[in-house]
Amino acid sequence: PKGNMAFAGKYEFEGDENYDEFVKKIGLPSDKIEMGRNCKIVTEVVQNGNDFTWTQHFPGGRTTTNTFTVGKEADMETFGGKKFKATVKIEDGKLVADFPNYRHTAEICGGKLIEISTSSGVVYKRTSKKIA
């Protein structure tokens, strides 16, 4: 199967690829770039059918939460704190959202949460391991 859509759980940042290139491409300010580098973000996902609450816990107590229903427009917040509206879709067992300046996908693969963001040809990949 292409992913069983069982996203619920807590995941801790394990590693990423192309971070610097990606955050520069989307225009993150340098203080945010430093803050996010190798940041032990814990992603907590609560899933009830097609309803999701997706929370990122940053070291130091800051959190970002996006609540959405697959297929319905929702108010979201980006990596850099910008607010926007997006409709999250499911494609091949992945959650897909088009952010203002990048496309984000998330999937569960081998017990890990794999998130990929793509902006003008730069692909940023973040892997988090399940901790709960």
TrEMBL record:
GO terms for cellular component: cytoplasm. Belongs to the calycin superfamily. Fatty-acid binding protein (FABP) family. Pfam families: Lipocalin_7. This is FABP6 protein. It is found in: Cytoplasm. Its main location: cytoplasm. The keyword Transport applies. Residues 9-26 form the Cytosolic fatty-acid binding proteins domain. It comes from the Eukaryota. InterPro entries: Calycin, Fatty_acid-bd, ILBP. The keyword Transport applies.
